[in-house]
Specification:
homodimer; alpha/beta; Aspartate Aminotransferase, domain 1; 15 strands; 38% helix; globular
Chain lengths: 397, 397
Amino acid sequence: MENLRNGYLFPEISKRAFDHTQKHPDARLIRLGIGDTTEPIPDIITSAMAEYAKALSTIEGYNGYGDEQGNMALRVAIAETLYRNMGIKGNEVFVSDGAQCDISRLQMLLGSDVTVAVQDPSFPAYIDSSVIFGRAGKFEEETGKYGNIVYMKCSPENKFFPNLSITRKTDVIFFCSPNNPTGNAATKLQLQRLVEFAKANGSIIIYDSSYAAFISDESPRSIYEIPGAKEVAIEVSSFSKFAGFTGVRLGWTVVPEELKYTNGFPVIKDYDRIVCTCFNGAPSISQAGGLACLSPQGYEATTAVIAYYKENAKIIADTFRSLALKVYGGENAPYIWVHFPGQKSWDVFNEILAKTHIVTIPGSGFGPAGEEYMRFSAFGRRENILEASRRLKSLYK
Amino acid sequence: MENLRNGYLFPEISKRAFDHTQKHPDARLIRLGIGDTTEPIPDIITSAMAEYAKALSTIEGYNGYGDEQGNMALRVAIAETLYRNMGIKGNEVFVSDGAQCDISRLQMLLGSDVTVAVQDPSFPAYIDSSVIFGRAGKFEEETGKYGNIVYMKCSPENKFFPNLSITRKTDVIFFCSPNNPTGNAATKLQLQRLVEFAKANGSIIIYDSSYAAFISDESPRSIYEIPGAKEVAIEVSSFSKFAGFTGVRLGWTVVPEELKYTNGFPVIKDYDRIVCTCFNGAPSISQAGGLACLSPQGYEATTAVIAYYKENAKIIADTFRSLALKVYGGENAPYIWVHFPGQKSWDVFNEILAKTHIVTIPGSGFGPAGEEYMRFSAFGRRENILEASRRLKSLYK
């Protein structure tokens, strides 16, 4: 624990935002920082949750413990709706209270001396949970890296896909696509190379597809679109951004039966045991909501909300393009990744907050390769996004 | 992982019950095994959850991520309602998705080489999570114990309180009161001795008070009723049995500011970091339900449900007393612990299931000191409890 660098990024940003509001109580703060959904959940989904909750007061509707792995109807619905034609079965889907929680449960699954690779930049929980589990080694001030973590640099120069020919072999590869924070979705060809690389090295890929619902183009929405991926990849995903469930808490992890340790033992058996021992099932009311999300009408309604956020993303991206800055992401993800050449990203964060009352996230919070970049979240009410656009244009024009 | 003994107890029992129903499709199975609530949740509580859920479809009522540590109103309500006069503050209460999940998060908090003591018998998750985190040592067939775990025997001979004068010093002591499975609540004097013992040894007590709401007598409902406990104890608890939230998922952990590592660093700071990195907050709808449970009317309504289960417990206890068996528990807990002298508890389990179609739990599943004992759960519909009583009486008369 002592080895963890400073505050966890998101609480740190909340704290700075809070301090700012204390200093400027009259300013109208706009939050483009933490990727937190703002749009109401479609009625068809909340009605299903409300009905489920109310029924808990009746003898017929009351349910106690559910299966630790989740309600089978929901597991099957996830497999059939989101992994159609990929051959994923309901029993391979483990319903959870969210992707971040599953990442730490997956850390429990791994032996204590595994080696880990992450995209640089990436969502901090991969590294921070690795630090807590004692796999990261010492933090090196000079490089901004942990000694035992392999950082796979992803930047415009390599089309945000790591140069695997120089990437050290590790037991585990965390890979997030569409990526948080860069907003970049890996192509089919890139993911094929990733799967081949993992296969050649005997690595397990932990693939985070939490933002898959935002993909507009032909990029794969799941690692299991790649033939052979079931033998090397676990996929973590979530209803948080897909259905506005950030507070409702619902996610899932797919562990295919084909995935085996080098000794031939199926990983799914160990993961099942972790889930039964260290978790007691996702909240039943949230699971009722998850099922409603996957009904034809529910799915259509969530798609409309996602389209709203994607329009926000376009507004933010266009804002920075109009300022002649290099803009990435936003088309397959709710995040816009903007290059501020020659500037420290925490300085940019401070300047934007001080001068425009907009909370953002400094790219360096996601890893050393994020320096000089800023992440802007497209989650927000439209009027706030438009107002933020105006403020940013007047700051930088 | 390979070091884990056979199936996790509760899934194993579910499996045997399932197999039994396959063989006897017409038998009416009665479940007195896993402690799973059966009574509807009072309307005042489910209405609060349903309203919260419905409001998520409105701009005013929508909320995204909550604080990782829980909604402060709920944290304060827990502190003020359940820890009244014990000086626990809202910021020391970490709301979670259940006690079992918190136990594994507490395992993350501990260093990799800590030593652990548990009551014998005890809830299997303490040992099983210790095995997963690599602290348990080898399982020894002869003793039925893991080599590195200290088993504190609790039996009628020592009034279910361990003989501390012969207990080896450990870094951590898991202690559950009212105890699962024995149903015994520790007295104030016993807990004072436990706190003194921990203080003298520099141990941290992880105190599980999940069944506190069932206490009928003067036994402490919290370890913090003992002066000085804040310097040595973390308390884990749950709404599962208190309010029928087994499926709704809501619990909490108290980490007092006074609790420090030997180097003086406050444990609460590390736990906060674990919660922010490996957890993302309890489900918001469940938290709304938790708040309703702690309102005066909600609390009164949950008390009535608990009284119902306690009446069940009395029926079960009286059944076995009428059969001249030694009966423990049931008065301060929903569990009845019955001695079957000279018999293997899995044999008793199999016999009761085969001959009466009642699912129970063999005491040996909770540790070697549980051999010859059976645990009966008082959670059930009254008509089932009465029918179970009739069947058991005719089996053993």
